[in-house]
Each structure stands twice: as C-alpha cells, then as structure tokens.
C-alpha cells in the first residue's frame, strides 16, 4: 500500500544507504565522500556529503559538529547557486535548532528552507521543511497551527504513499491528541504509524511510534505492557545509534515507572535520562527529565521546600528558552504541590 522508507537526506553518491544504517557508519561514509568531493572539486557533491555529515552528527548528539556541517553544506550549495541543496541544508539547520531548544531560529531556518525548496521544485525538501515547522510549533505549544500543518502533510503523504512522511504526520497528530486527552485517537494514530513504519522498513519511525504507544498504555494503567514496548524501541535506538531518541525513550520509561508508583526506580531512570540529555546539550529533554526527577523525589519524601525551590529555578531557566509547553508543565507541578500543601 505504501512505499518502502527512504532517506532523502542521503544524496549524491550516498543515496544508496539504507534509512536504517547505524549513524556511526553513516558518518564514516559521509566523511569519506566529503574528502572525495573536495578532491573532485564538486560543489554539489560536497554540499550533499556535508548534509549527511550534519544529520549523522545531530543524531549522534554531537551538536556543535552538526552545526558546523550544515552551515558548510549551505555555503557549498550557495557557491554553485543550487537552491535545492541550500533548502536541504536549511532544513538540517532548523532541525538542529529545534533539538537545541532554539525554537524561533528553528522556524526561521525551516521557513527559509521551505521557500527555497518551493522555488527549486524540491517537493521532498519542501515536505520535510513543513513537517519540521509543524513539529517545532507543537513543541512550542502552538497546537492548533501545528495540527493544521500535520493534517496537510498527512493528506499529501497518503496521496503519494510516502512512508516516512505518513509516519511523521501520524505521530505528530497522535502526540497532539494525547496532549488533548484523547487517548483513543492517539492510540489509533500511533498504531497506524507503527504498522506503516514496520511495513516500510522505517525503524526510526517505528521506535518513536512504539514510544507513543507505550505512553498511552501507561496512561491507561498497563505499565508492564508499556515497559515491554519501550524495551523494543530501545533496541532499535541502540542498533541505529539514535542518541536523542534513546534519551527520550529513557525519559518515557521514567514516566511509566512514576505512574506505576515505583518512585525509586523512576528517580534513577530520570537521572539517567537527564545525564544523557545534558551530554548531547538538549535542553528540552533535560528539563523534562529534571521535572520527573523532582516529582519522584517528592514522592519519596524529600522535604517539600527544597523541591519547590528547584522547580522554581527550573521554571526560571525555561524563561530564557522558548519551550512554553515545557514551562507550563513545570508550573502545573508547582501548583499541584501548593494545592497539596494547602
């Protein structure tokens, strides 16, 4: 029904790599191709190799290296006036900015990439840029606008039978449904995404869909089943070197353990996730893991004033970020503790 998953960000001589290639292997191949492109004095091949390098570094959590690589890709593409390659580089830069919690910059880079892709007739780069904007808006808390973009992408992906776009759009909508409290719809969308990803060979998409299914199962009280789904997703993350996805998987495991009232294990798991996020300089994940850790410590009997002080400090740190939805979650935790104390 739907095509096999491909990785359109692997271009030129790297086009033959599987979407499921481990990122250490992707990086090695792309660095070798970059050297060849420099020797051949091929500006387009150089831009394409550096795009792949940027994406491999980003997935591996090496964000400074990823930043240098996408900018180098853009410069190489601009030097030969290749607007399609420039669009892909901007997509990579916008995705990296989102991962770093720089959401305004992410929307700016992705929007610029969308415009260049449209001008160049690069439909895949255009779709990826729109999907990136939708995800950024969802993370920022602009749910209505994000839903409209995800629904647009879903309709287009169904027409074309594009596996990865379908999975991405379904997972975005499922997350919005979950945040709105519609667990039945969230389950259906995550389930469909998992099925399409598995059928299309998109292990990245499958790992994220399994994480979503685990979240819904846990919210329904099915904690053991949720942990099993997370273990399956973790195997994929480790096999593919998906550093950020692995950290979010770990954070979700903490959520499941917390909901099951296994607070000691939840605290240890949240602390692991927090360290993972900090090692890859991902502020949103680190903030969410810290929030879970503080709530777990409170349940374990830690003096309330110390926890409240750290929650206020976390909220104030988020003021300098653009993570409004994450900040609201911290504020809700502060309010809940105040109500209990009253």
From TrEMBL:
InterPro entries named in the record: TPR-like_helical_dom_sf
Pfam families: TPR_12 (PF13424)
Domain of life (superkingdom): Bacteria
Gene3D superfamilies membership: Tetratricopeptide repeat domain
PANTHER family for the chain: HTH-TYPE TRANSCRIPTIONAL REGULATOR RV0890C-RELATED, REGULATOR-RELATED
Name of the protein in its database record: Tetratricopeptide (TPR) repeat protein
